[in-house]
Each structure stands twice: as C-alpha cells, then as structure tokens.
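agent> step 3/5: call structure_predict on target 'Cytochrome c' (Lutimonas vermicola).
agent> reason: downstream docking stage needs a structural representation; sequence fetched in step 2, passing through unchanged.
tool.input:
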Amino acid sequence: MKNIFNIAFTGLMMVLLVSCSDGRPTERSVQYMGDTDMYVPVSYETYGENPFFENKINAQLPVEGSIARGATVYDYPDSEAGYQMAKDSLTSPFKVDESVLEKGKVTYQIYCSSCHGDKGDGMGTLVKNEKFLGVPNYKDRDITQGSIYHVIMHGRNLMGSHASQLTEEERWNVVHYVELLRADLLK
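tool.output (status=ok):
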C-alpha cells in the first residue's frame, strides 16, 4: 500500500514539473477556426480610424432623430414662443394623488428649495445668503403646468435646465408639488 502511494506521488510530481516547464510552444499547434477573428482579433484604438464606418472613426454619433431609452420627445422649443406654447397647451399625463405629491416634495426639496424656498416664496437658502437675487415667488407668477414643466426642461433667465437630472415622471411630480405650493401661497 505504501509502495502504491509512493508511485502515485512520484507520478504526480513528474506531471507537475513537466507542466511548468518553459519548453511549451508559444503558438497554438492546431486552430479549429482557421484564421478567423476568434483567435486573432482585430483591435482598433478608441477614437482611431476604422475602415468599416462612414466617418472612419470608431466613436459613432447616434442616428439623427433617435431618442434615448426611456426618454420621450419634448417638442416645445427653447424659446419664448415655445414657452408660451407649453404654457397654453401642455398638461400632465399623470394623475395627482398623495404619493405623487410626496415624491414631488422630496424632489423639490433636493433640486428647487435652495433657490425657491421650501414654501415657494422665492426665499431659499441661496437667496437668503444673497448668492442669487430675484428668484420668483410662485404667488406673483402666472404659471401653469406647461410653463413649469418647460422651465424645468429648458431653464429660464438665471435658472438652468434640470432635464438631465430629473426623469419625466420626476419633473411632473415637481410640477404638481409647485402647483400645491402656489395654491397655499394664494390663500
């Protein structure tokens, strides 16, 4: 029994020593796929030339008119005319309930209250510290769902666009919450 163990151990050590030698060929001796890209891939530099694309560059622009996944088309231009069109005709596709208002409140507190204030009175932290002046009070403005949404999408005056930070649903939640704040201010 001891003899079988010694033979097996010796054989195992020989296999390990042979498998670790540097005498192995560096190239494959048999290729099952021939000279395809499976074994010999063609690599290109990230922004280098690539003969397979029209502009000969690897980084391609999206197809004209394509929309990012999960995004929707917003057809109101970033202009005064677009603002008026949105103000007059754009309405929320979502129904208002307590969960929408609660989500809108959370999002408003993150993105809007630092300038517009927790109550929508234009007295946010940045206004109180005189970092920004002239932030509108929702009570003094003739605003609609469409105008609020348009300003979130494109910005207006000193306010920049928040379209990249908020999803469509979050924007509409904020719109509904701003309407609630405005109604409280008008009381």
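agent> step 4/5: record observation. Residues 15 and 65 are 63 Å apart (CA to CA).
agent> proceeding.
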